[in-house]
Amino acid sequence: RLEQATGEEYGELVLQGKGEFLLENFWNLQLQRAKGAPYVSVAVVVTDFNHHLVVGPGIERIEDLRSKRLTVRGHHPSDMTALLWLKDHGLEGQVEVSMATDGQVGRWGGWKKILRGESDAALITNLYVDDARAAGLRAFPVDRYGYFGNGVFTTRLDVVEDRREEVEKLVRAIFETARLFREDPDTVLGIMA
Questions:
Q1: Residue range 157-174, pLDDT digits in tens
Q2: 23: three-class secondary structure by DSSP
Q3: Cα 110 from Cα 96, distance rounded (Å)
Q4: FRET label pair with 147: which of 28, 42, 83, 191, CA 20 to 30 Å apart?
Q5: By the 8 A CB rule, do 188 and 180 touch?
Q6: 79 CB contacts (<8 Å, ≥6 apart)?
Q7: pLDDT band for position 19 (50/70/90)?
């Protein structure tokens, strides 16, 4: 049975035994895990920084961000990962970075600051790039950049210990679903419809 938690209590529901698995950003659970909460993650859906660089005129490649204004989502872990991405591409301190919260620009709407002349580029998830393109902006995926945090299947240690075979079947099903989606997305989308 799937149930969507209504707020920040999602991790607590798993700890209280009111749910067995959580599909959430691992970043939100790190502090609790560090304090001893018995979380264990068994699979992750997103292992790469799945972002696109949305750009205005004059930017053709990542290196063109030097001395430009870049908007990133003002929400963990997006902001932290974006800064690491810039550093690893030799652009730390060479790009004027501004944060835009969803409340300011809409969910993943940092690209709107380009249209308003407030930014030259924005890093946004691939799931929201179509709106930016429809507004006339160009977007291209960033190079593969390892990342752990989105869509992590997490449970309690005792669930894994007590029901190992079932957990292994779940993990196999997750991988099979990912494979099917990659190889035959039309079938998956038909199932989801």
A1: 999 999 999 999 999 998
A2: strand
A3: 14
A4: 191
A5: yes
A6: 72, 73, 99
A7: confident
